[in-house]
Amino acid sequence: MDLREPPRRGFEANLLPMINVVFLLLIFFLISARLAPPEPFAVAPPEARAGARAAAELTLYLGADGALGFRESLSAPATPAQEAAADAPVLAALAAARAAYCAEEDCAAAPPPLALRADQGAPVVRLARLMRALGASGFARVDLITAPAPGAAP
Prior knowledge:
Elements: H1 16-32, E1 47-48, E2 58-62, E3 68-70, E4 73-74, H2 83-104, E5 114-118, H3 124-136, E6 142-144, E7 147-148
Parallel strand pairs: 1-7, 2-5, 5-6
Antiparallel strand pairs: 2-3, 3-4
């Protein structure tokens, strides 16, 4: 009969509980995070002293050179005569996104909000024509995204 004590094992850290916690945190952040598509191009928004926060599902971009962007669809800067043809693919993608939104939500009760991120150097005439085209395509409300002016209350 062997009455000796069994050999002691060295200290081994059990990493399994920590891995489980990290994995659960990863799942929590993946579920709770909202993934936003990248901006098609950089825009410097105009400044404003006061305003309300915009909550929009769809965001349209207008560059300083007059280029239009929505998600992966981009239009090249064009002359006023060629704007309609150049903007057609972008506005078609926007209309498709609006139709997808309306398939899930009741657009008659609450039309889809649209945010317009226009560069402060964008031509005003171009912006006015774009607003008219957006109104014709069914967007009753377009929120112009601005940056707070220096010294303005947040």
